[in-house]
Amino acid sequence: MLDCIKDIKFDQAGLVPAIAFDVKTGQVLMLAYMNEESLTLTLSTGYAHYYSRSRQQLWKKGETSGHLQKVLGVSLDCDGDTILLTIEQTGPACHTGEKSCFFREIDAEGCLQPREPVATIGGGMQLEYDIIAARAKEPEEGSYTNYLLTKGIDKILKKVGEETTEVVIAAKNRSREELTYETADLIYHLSVLLFEQGLTWDDIGAEIVKRRAKAYCLK
């Protein structure tokens, strides 16, 4: 038995709700249920396993579709009756093909409407990087990304330098709109540079976490 089991408040059916949170986009992707066995499998394998109430059996997320959930962390809420999984999602999380199961929202009139994507810096940077990777894999005629990747490192670095200067000018001009636009341009060109060098934004994030952990004496 897991040491943490005594702190988890399973319901009468031996289940506890588990929420999957995408570390890259900041989205809540889905809610499912776990029992002790599926939680044990999740912790031991590093991939999300749930318990299906309708089929009454264990299931590994993405085992058939390939849309796996790599588990980076497991948290328990203050009441002990809900689990939060911090995950890296491969492909869409929802069986409908949507990225998140929560793709509809209820408007003021009580009607269901498509939900607008939540704009986060992590989601935006990941989207830029994913599009760059897709262009590299399947080039498109007239693609600026393919142009930069074809020209190579010198051209990419030149553009990074130019966009950095544009950010400086925008900040000196005290223009929020201009600064927002130019910063987005800089992030795009940095994304191209990282891709060309075989790095990802996750590598940069890991470096930042490592620095801050040292600063606050975290282990």
Structural summary, described in words:
The chain has helices spanning 36-45, 121-137, 144-151, 153-172, 176-196, 201-215, and strands at 16-22, 28-34, 49-52, 57-60, 69-76, 83-89, 104-106, 112-114. The chain has 219 residues and is α+β, with helices and mostly antiparallel strands. Strands 2-1-6-5 form a four-stranded mixed β-sheet, with helices on one face. A two-stranded antiparallel sheet has the order 3-4. The longest helix is centred in the C-terminal third of the chain and has 21 residues, at 176-196. It is elongated. The mean pLDDT is 90.
In sequence order, what are the helices and strands, one letter per element?
EEHEEEEEEHHHHH
Quick one: how many beta strands? 8
Please report which band the strand proportion falls in: under 5%, 5-15%, 15-25%, 25-35%, 35-45% or over 45%: 15-25%
**Proportion in helices:** 40-55%
Q: Sheet with the most strands?
A: 4 strands, mixed
Number of helices: 6
Keywords:
219 residues; alpha+beta; 8 strands; two-stranded antiparallel sheet; single chain
Quick gist of this model?
The chain is an alpha+beta fold and 219 residues long. It is 42% helix and 20% strand.
